[in-house]
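[AMINO ACID CHAIN]
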Amino acid sequence: MSDLFNSNILEKALDAASLRQQVIANNISNVNTPGFRPQAVTFEEQLKQELAGESNMEFEVVCEKTEPEHFALNNDFKPGVAQVVQDNTQEVDINKQMASLAKNQILYNALVGKITKDIGNIRFVIDSIR
């Protein structure tokens, strides 16, 4: 795979982790809201499907607004890889949400570390050419 392809995936994975952070925060803030159903972000599963199909990957982070009172990151809903979907659970499980928050933070930090390393390598090559 090309470095440009990897950079695109890393960028979109970082976007998905950021979106996931917002969704989890929204779930936690609505823990006591009657009738609120938690949401989740799909990214990894859809990325696997795209990679298996070896299709022309156009990655976008989108938010599907399922109810009028639910938040949405934008009003441009297009199909993409990272999407906000309804969780299968009927109510917010605060323990599950806090665990998801910690897991997502670790993933986010790992992605930032990888991107930082890649940028450092590019800088090294550029400085070597001068």
Summary: The two ends are 27 Å apart (CA to CA). The helical segments are 3-29, 44-53, 94-129.
